[in-house]
Specification:
It contains eleven helices and eleven strands. The chain is of the alpha/beta class and about 280 residues long. The protein is elongated, with a radius of gyration of 28 Å. Keywords: Metal-binding, Signal.
Length: about 280
């Protein structure tokens, strides 16, 4: 070997070493992309995504935070009307757990094999109330066939309800008024909203002199007052079923459903005005 070749040999060896190291890094990076986060040993589970009826806002936030403290598992909650959430799940939205404000929408998903019936349970109950703005002069009353709500609505006032054909709170309200013989006269004065919290907000802002919401909603909003509670037999039983989405493979989905039935979670829901099942 010439002196020139001897001088080049260490440089060539260094270049080969650098190329080998670069190839190894590229291979490891590619493997990392293919395996994904879940394949990394010790990596935490991704956030648990819960679809929950709008009337659970506040209560479910508190319950989710308590579960995070208890388990270390992050939880994210998406709120909307039960009908909107069920349709999103039908379109394969990536939810892990669904909490509906009535049985019908859970039945609808179960009939499509989109929830796991073995995980389904009625979690909560509620009551339906008639509310007015806190500063109004409206007084407490009893909802009967003889009551006249027109004077409380005034000439141009509207009755705020969630969508009466699809959203549970709106369906319960319509059924209640129908059973009392009041719906025919009230229907022309109704303003429908996409969910029960939107109806609550119209009353809280004074944009509607009357509204129908859940008792838990009224408790959450200091700017409204309850005028009356609907008779229990005037509308279908209010139930909040929960179930795991069948397509979910999240390892903590069932643990979260189980925890929602715990005494600690029950205390949170009672504090927010819900009835335990």
């Amino acid at each position: 070997m010439s002196r020139r070749d001897e001088a080049r040999a260490p440089v060539a060896a260094m270049v080969r070493a650098l190329l080998a190291a670069s190839l190894l890094c590229a291979t490891l990076a590619a493997c990392g992309r293919d395996a994904g986060p879940a394949a990394v040993a010790g990596a935490p589970s991704p956030p648990l995504l819960v679809f929950a009826a709008a009337s659970l806002a506040g209560a479910m936030d508190a319950a989710a935070a308590a579960f995070e403290d208890h388990s270390g598992q992050a939880v994210r909650v998406s709120y909307a009307g039960s009908s909107a959430l069920a349709r999103q799940i039908d379109q394969r939205a990536p939810a892990d757990v669904f909490v509906s404000a009535d049985r019908e929408w859970m039945d609808w998903l179960q009939a499509r094999a989109l929830v796991d019936p073995a995980t389904r349970v009625d979690l909560l109950g509620n009551t339906l109330v008639l509310v007015a703005p806190g500063g109004s002069g409206a007084q407490a009353l009893e909802l009967t066939r003889r009551v006249d709500l027109q004077p409380l609505l005034g000439e141009d006032g509207r009755l705020a309800l969630a969508l009466t054909d699809s959203v549970p709170a709106g369906k319960y309200a319509r059924a209640g008024f129908e059973s009392l013989g009041l719906w025919k006269t009230l229907q022309p004065r109704v303003t429908e909203t996409e969910n029960v919290r939107a109806a609550l907000l119209l009353v809280a802002r004074g944009e509607a002199p009357l509204g129908v919401v859940y008792a838990s909603d009224a408790r959450a909003e200091p700017r409204v007052k309850v005028l009356a509670t609907f008779p229990a037999g005037s509308h279908p039983d209010i139930a909040y079923p929960v179930a795991r989405i069948r397509a979910s493979a999240h390892p903590q989905a069932q643990a979260f459903i189980d925890w929602l039935q715990s005494p600690e979670a029950g205390a949170i829901f009672r504090r927010h005005g819900f009835v335990l099942r």
